[in-house]
Amino acid sequence: MSRIYLQKRGIFFLMIAVLLLLLPWAMPAKAENFDRNKYIYDFAHLLTDNEAAELQNIASELGKERETAFIILTVSGTDGKDIVQYVEDFYDDNAPGYDQPHGNTAILAIDMQERDIYLAGFKKAEQYLSDGRLDQIRDNITPDLSDGHYFQAFSAFITASHEYMGNEPNDGSGSDGYSDYGPGGSSVGYNGYDSGADQENIFFQWWFQLIASFIVAGVVVAIMAYRSGGRVTVNAGTYMNSDQSRVLNKYDNFVRQTVTRQRKPSNNTHSGGGGGITGGGHSHSGSRGKF
């Protein structure tokens, strides 16, 4: 294999790395037409016009304080998708966010057909609305959803998410600063504070991804160039004459067998925390259940 051919392959891998870096920026036309100032998507028609307008105002005002889009999404069927995938596709396709595409977003989604509820936090909301915090919010609004008090449940979600976004992420216990939210989203005894911190992960910064792509591409090219001289295929057996050697016999001796058992984790998708990564590569926190 010639050195020139290997160099061409290295350049090809470099182009692929740069292309993968630029793919997230090539958003579909659907995302460009998405109104990022709209926060209530009541496709299941659970709210009156006045209730939807009031929730829109609440989400808008509280969203400005936390620089986060608080979105309510109701549907009557998800076209055969799981509720989690439906929310992930909604985020990928529409690119919501407070001040930029695919920005800070907290979503409450319910499917009336399957009686599913899913809460998700993206970007900064993924850190401040952890799985544990979303579990607590979901547990407290589920009774209202079950009783058909949708406005109360939705407003409680927005209010609770807003207060959690002003309280630093905890150590994972999920019990810091949250108090029971009753109907209408009122709270008692909450001791939160507005940190104003924006702890964006460095791995999601475009400049870091660009540098990492070139480093990976450079390593690939270096490895290809190093191996361009060919591999050494000569070993001890190459010059050994088995007919005249003094090796009289060879054998394999079985010594022991070890079997390791591990319990298979249960696949409970009906309740509890459950974040993940969307098809577009956006990580998020999450909590799902029934109502």
Care to describe what's here?
It is built from 8 helices and 7 strands, in the order ααβαβαββααααβββ. With 291 residues, it is α/β, with parallel strands linked by helices. It has a domain at 36-204 and 269-290: Diaminopimelate Epimerase, Chain A, domain 1, CATH 3.10.310.50. Strands 1, 2, 3, 4, 5, 6 and 7 form a 7-stranded mixed beta sheet that branches. The protein is elongated. The model is unreliable at 22-31, 177-200 and 263-270 (pLDDT under 50).
Short structural description:
The protein is an alpha/beta fold and 291 residues long. The chain has a domain at 36-204 and 269-290: Diaminopimelate Epimerase, Chain A, domain 1 (Roll).
Poorly predicted regions are: 22-31, 177-200, 263-270
**Average pLDDT metric:** 76
Shape call: elongated
Order of helices and strands: HHEHEHEEHHHHEEE
Strand coverage percent: 5-15%
Q: Helical element count?
A: 8
Give the tally of β-strands: 7
What structural class do you assign from the helix and strand content?
A: alpha/beta
In whole angstroms, the N-to-C terminal distance is 63 Å
- Level-1 CATH class name of one domain: Alpha Beta
Percent in helix: 25-40%
Protein name: TPM domain-containing protein
Keywords: Membrane, Transmembrane, Transmembrane helix
Pfam families: TPM_phosphatase
